[in-house]
Amino acid sequence: MHQPKITTKRLIACFISMLLPVLAMALRCFLLFADTIFNLAFAITYLIIPVAFIGFFALIIFSSEKKFGKIILIFFVLGAFVVSFFISSFIGTFEQFSYYKNEKIGKHYTQVCADFDLMPTLKEIGNYVQIEHYDYFSQSGLIFTCDADTLIVSYTDEEYQKQKALLDDRYVFQEEPVSSDYTWEPYAEIQNYAFRMLCIEDESSMKINYPKKIIFIATNDQQRSIAYTAFYDDDLDHIQSLEPFLLKECGWKHIVK
Fold this sequence. Notes:
Layout: H1 8-17, H2 19-33, H3 40-61, H4 67-91, E1 93-101, H5 106-115, E2 130-140, E3 144-154, H6 157-170, E4 178-179, E5 183-184, E6 187-190, E7 193-197, E8 213-220, E9 225-232, H7 242-248, H8 252-255
Antiparallel strand pairs: 1-2, 2-3, 3-9, 4-5, 6-7, 7-8, 8-9
Helix pairs in contact: 1-3, 2-3, 3-4
């Protein structure tokens, strides 16, 4: 069987036909530097699909098919790539997870305090040993997003006991089970962090709007730390159970991993 030669024209045609998949892979590299999490949806959309179609283009270009047939096949495969890439982008859930520590928190956390008036400012958290800010963002269906910011403050033992005791003076916590489409308890424990949700009917804050905009506070006696999580999702209609919600939607699966 005649084997097509590797010529300059074929190499150029191969490069041009592969341009979109290569750009998709380049975008993958850029997103990884922007704190994107390499999950299954990300791997399928920005790695598996582009690599597969690069292989298809190479097979077409270096096949023994006539030029006109190759052009038809290339346009057909190119259309299939665009459709596959769009569908994968639409049905997948993509995540970003950023981390800031101590003096690097600055403006990142300041904006959170502006959006959530019950989140403590850096001047209100006492004499801490260390502060950490985790910013979790997820997107699915191209337009559905949720955002959660978690501030974890670590203390000495004496200061921790003091700050923990002040929580009930500073905040009103939800005591009764939350009922909407589902009924669930407003507290949970995840790896020694004991979570409580701020009262969803507290009139002291006009910026709590259950379930779209809520705040959780957790204490960890073993690590002598207090965690504040502010969550926002304008499209959320209900919460089924608190622990899986904190782990998945609020990004705690990446904090306590």
